[in-house]
Recover the amino acids of this structure.
């Protein structure tokens, strides 16, 4: 009987594996087609507001890519970014996202301070990445490069053959800012902080959500905010869903926040409307 149930477990396990391999292959195929199509349609880049904790005023946005399936449905990056990284298609995908982000930053330049773009380890390791960035900035001379922020995660440092620190220094010399994404979730956050010339830390949602009613989270946040400040970095808290958390972050001295409380990622047309409205609200 034991053997039999073991066999069942094994079968269930294999079933799940099979589904996930299938999904991966399907994601790869969809992505390949999307990249070959009209990317603006097939790979829409959406924007989520980054706001002042004090007033809710929109100061920036994070660009977050989506995929539009043939039936019109929207697929989140969790379903295809991993496949993009494994296959190297992230390089083309990332270029598309950067182009769209800069185009919209140009369009919104009078109403929006900056746009933050996620950059995967594989993209950063690519020798053509810095030249691409330099070309795109040169094509938009009206934009101060510091209005572009590149978000990188700790895994960019691990197992990379290129000298990531060196590469980040080069990027910073272009004037572009660097943010440490999902800060606090990795294995070596402090080493990371010591070695990487970053300008911004993004406090991960896992210790932001519900912080107002959790003394431990609150202590961690305060310590990280202090650390960031001492290092001359600014901080953005991710995943703010509740007013009580906004207040707690504001009291703790966290100036910038991002989360569903202020808006989910939205298509550029909708984001445009948001910043127009918020501008009308503050214009005398
Ligand atoms: P991330 O960079 O940490 O982005 C933040 C994620 O948290 C986004 O999910 C956003 O929708 C979600 N989020 C923001 N506020 C809240 C909140 O209040 N509550 C909850 N529950 N979630 C919130 P999304 O758009 O699904 O993106 C997931 C991840 O996919 C991103 O995490 C990033 O690592 C990756 N990604 C997205 N776009 C790109 C891209 O263009 N390039 C690369 N390399 N990765 C990307
Ligand atoms: Mg991010
Ligand atoms: Mg993040
Ligand atoms: Mg995150």
């Amino acid at each position: 009987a034991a053997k039999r149930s073991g066999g069942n477990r094994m079968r269930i396990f294999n079933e799940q594996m099979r589904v996930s391999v299938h999904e991966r292959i399907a994601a790869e195929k969809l992505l390949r087609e999307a990249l070959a199509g009209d990317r603006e349609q097939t790979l829409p880049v959406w924007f989520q507001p980054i706001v002042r904790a004090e007033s809710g005023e929109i100061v920036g946005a994070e660009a977050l890519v989506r995929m539009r399936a043939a039936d019109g449905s929207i697929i989140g990056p969790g379903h295809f970014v991993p496949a993009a990284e494994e296959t190297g298609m992230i390089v083309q995908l990332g270029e598309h996202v950067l182009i769209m982000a800069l185009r919209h930053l140009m369009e919104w330049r009078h109403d929006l301070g900056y746009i933050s773009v996620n950059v995967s380890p594989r993209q950063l390791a690519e020798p053509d990445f810095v030249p691409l960035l330099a070309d795109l900035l040169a094509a938009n001379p009206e934009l101060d490069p510091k209005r572009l922020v590149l978000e990188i995660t700790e895994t960019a440092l691990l197992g990379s053959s290129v000298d990531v620190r060196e590469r980040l220094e080069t990027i910073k010399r272009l004037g572009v800012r660097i943010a440490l994404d999902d800060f606090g979730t990795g294995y070596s956050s402090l080493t990371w902080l010591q070695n990487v010339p970053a300008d911004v830390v993004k406090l991960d949602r896992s210790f932001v959500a519900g912080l107002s009613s959790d003394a431990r989270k609150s202590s961690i946040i305060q310590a990280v905010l202090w650390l960031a400040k001492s290092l001359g970095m600014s901080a953005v808290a991710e995943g703010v869903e509740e007013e009580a958390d906004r207040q707690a972050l504001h009291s703790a001295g966290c100036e910038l926040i991002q989360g569903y409380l202020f808006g989910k990622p939205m298509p550029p047309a909708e984001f445009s409307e948001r910043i127009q409205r918020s501008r009308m609200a503050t214009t005398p």
